[in-house]
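Lab notebook, bench 4. Still working through the backlog of constructs that have no structural model yet. Next entry is a single chain of 262 residues. Request: give me the structure tokens for it.
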Amino acid sequence: MSDATRKAAIVTGSATGVGAATVLGLAARGWNVVINYSRSEKQAHETAARARAAGADVRVVRGDIAELATAEALAGAAIEAWGRLDAVVNNAGTTTFARQSDLAAVDAADFARIYAVNVVGAFQMCQVAAPHLKAGGDGAIVNISSIAGVTGIGSSIAYAASKGALNTLTISLARVIGPEIRVNAICPGMVTSRWLRDGLGDEIYENLKKGLEDSLPLAKVSTPEDVAEAAIWLIEGAGLVTGNLLLLDGGQHLGYAPLVAR
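Model written out:
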């Protein structure tokens, strides 16, 4: 398959975790990919090397997705390298880990930063990418949200609120940028990741994982690869799906309250 026929995607926050798994999944399916990172330079280049080994052409762009210039650089990298952009996965995200019952644990600065990355950054990426996605006639945007945006339970009140906003953004965009672009969101429950373990600490992380596995209808939590597989299906195999929130949570939305919310 020549470079001219390979589709191209941007995956934000893709050095590790869900983002990296999505890059590798797309690479295995014949896509070229722009990788984005803000801090994890070593891991970003390791992910790039693995994607290249799978046959992908890859560009790596450092930048904070909260900045419009980063979105412009990511889209520019794809267009300069391949002359096309077919999909965007808005995976970059941040949080403040704080018990929701402790209202003093988050402040205006926390809200501003979390919204800047999780909501404004995603919107700006869509805004910049939309003309290029439309040009291809069959574009896809997948926003990696969270079950926190549906249940209101998550790593902090600010994080849950931001993911609720991202879900609404997904629906709003789906209404207005079709038919050339489909826009959907994935709302995972717990995802096994270094990022979550580091944020919660080992004990809370393990207790949460075990509690979910013991009580969820499907008795398991998501891996990064589970979320990546769903994202790639929404890009490649869901031609009539737009404006949807895919709850990828093992049944968590049916009523189990995670330990970190107590």
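Notes after review: Residues 37 and 62 are 5 Å apart (CA to CA). The radius of gyration is 17 Å. Flag for follow-up if needed.
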